[in-house]
Design brief:
Elements: H1 3-12, E1 39-43, E2 49-56, H2 83-95, E3 101-105, H3 112-128, E4 135-139, H4 146-155, E5 158-160, H5 168-174, H6 180-204, E6 222-228, H7 235-249, E7 253-258, H8 288-303, H9 308-311, H10 325-332, E8 339-340, H11 346-349, H12 357-366, H13 374-380, H14 384-387, E9 391-393, E10 396-397, H15 404-417, H16 421-428
Parallel strand pairs: 2-3, 3-4, 4-5, 5-6, 6-7, 8-9
Antiparallel strand pairs: 1-2, 9-10
This protein binds iron/sulfur cluster (SF4).
The site of iron/sulfur cluster has 11 residues, from loops.
Length: 435
């Protein structure tokens, strides 16, 4: 099979792994609009859109994860790149400005160490022989040795290992060849080497280029992906798990991926087939709203200083479908409000629906020189539609929060409107391949 035939197969097998924040990219028609096969858009921490070549090294897999189109029992065309092919392809796309980076994962075509070594070889060859200075995101293959995790981090900017399912029980049921212990072990290895590299740098003052000598280790950190809705776990279990992963392993991101039944991939004329599987739920559509609410809850964990137990209490298994998690918290804690905009500290301002982290910072800066009224609050960036129920400016209300049911009703549409259509587009076109 030549490279032109391999690329669409191995890009199709990988492009919807969510753990690099990729939207997938539609191949648009028209002048100057076509992107080469395998190029996906992704977003950096600061919101910049970058293009990545997103492929599997091989879609041959010994494992039979029920939710995946690459599972061993699927009847699909199987192939693999060679290291040299992938290096040349990456450099060629990079030189032509199609991409700013490479996202590389693989099916488990052999022993985990051998698969990991192959991924590392691609990254090492790019850095040491091809002079490639672009971004590299490598998957850690669970079960591969610590030394390999360390070497992967020397050549890659980011590493990720997908946790996939929220509990060991679910993993045993849908991905029996995977081990929760190995997945968490790989995350732990990452944290250990990242800490070690940080200490070495601090001692030696060696910052900058990646090489064994500078001991710079995956500077963009580690991430993971969780599939939502394939198993019975509720949102509370998922939010608690994410919170504990952020705490224990200093993850940069947990990505949530609404479950899409793998058989849906084979009804679009793509060829191949997959056996029926009674372990998988038959959902009418992917749980996109649930995925969206989990991303909002995740945001509260990472940037708004919320604890997991504040987002969902003992008696609340699922996030509110109708309002975002911060508004839901506010409606359960009306005694915390109103917050006086001209006096509240930064942390308290963060709790007000309609006030984001940037707006809270601006409020603190602005009120050093003048008092802030509701007009000023709007100009600074607050969403008054929501904030007005929970804040006062110089003691004045715009609208008092009296009846939580009424406010919930009023803000319900607002929250639903805030669902971005492009989010739905991106997830809806995602076939169930997780790599
Ligand atoms: S999720 Fe990964 S390990 Fe499991 S079948 Fe798919 S490619 Fe193989």
């Amino acid at each position: 099979m030549d490279l032109g035939e391999k690329l669409p197969i191995l890009a199709g097998s990988a492009k919807y792994d969510a753990s690099c924040a990729s939207s997938g990219s539609g191949r648009r028609k028209g002048f100057g609009a076509n992107l080469p096969e395998g190029v996906c858009h992704s977003w950096t921490e600061d919101g910049r859109c970058v293009s990545l070549l997103k492929v599997l090294y091989s879609n041959v897999c010994r494992y039979d994860c029920a939710y995946c189109v690459n599972r061993a029992s699927a009847d699909i065309v199987r192939t693999a790149f060679t290291v040299q092919e992938l290096v040349e392809l990456t450099c060629e796309f990079y030189r032509r400005n199609y991409i700013e980076g490479l996202f590389l994962s693989s099916g488990i075509f052999s022993d985990p160490d051998i698969v990991m070594e192959r991924l590392i070889k691609v990254a090492r060859t790019l850095r040491t022989e091809a002079g490639y200075g672009g971004y590299i995101h490598l998957k850690i293959i669970p079960g591969s040795g610590q030394k390999l995790v360390r070497e992967a981090g020397i050549w890659a900017d980011r590493l990720s290992v997908n946790i996939e399912l929220p509990t060991d029980r679910s993993l045993k049921s849908l991905a029996p060849q995977k081990s929760g212990g190995e997945i968490l072990g790989a995350m732990n290895d990452f944290s250990h080497f990242a800490d070690e590299a940080e200490k070495t740098r601090a001692k030696s003052g060696l910052y900058g280029r990646r090489s064994p000598a500078t001991a710079d280790f995956a500077p963009a950190g580690q991430s993971t992906q969780l599939i939502v809705g394939a198993t019975e776990e509720d949102d509370r279990q998922i939010v608690n798990l994410s919170s504990s992963l952020y705490r224990k392993f200093s993850l940069k991101r947990v990505y949530y991926s609404a479950f899409v039944h793998p058989k849906s991939h084979f009804t679009s004329g793509s060829g191949g087939s997959i056996p029926g599987d009674s372990r998988l739920p038959e959902l009418p559509s992917p749980p996109l709203l649930r995925e969206h609410r989990l991303y909002q809850a995740d945001w509260l964990l990472r940037f708004y200083r919320f604890g997991a137990e504040e987002i969902l209490g003992e008696d609340q298994p699922f996030l509110d479908r109708h309002v975002d998690p911060k508004t839901a918290w506010a409606l359960r804690h009306l005694d915390f409000f109103p917050v006086e905009i001209n006096r509240a500290d930064y942390e308290t301002l963060l709790r007000v629906p309609g006030i984001g982290a940037k707006t809270a910072r601006r409020i603190v800066e602005t009120r050093r020189s003048r008092s802030i009224g509701f007009d000023g609050l709007r100009r600074i960036g607050a969403v008054l539609k929501r904030a007005k129920f929970f804040a006062t400016c110089a003691g004045r209300f715009l609208e008092r929060a009296d009846d939580p049911h009424r406010i919930r009703r009023l803000l319900s549409d607002d929250a639903m409107d805030s669902l971005q259509p492009e989010l739905f587009d991106s997830v809806a076109e995602r076939p169930p391949s997780y790599g």
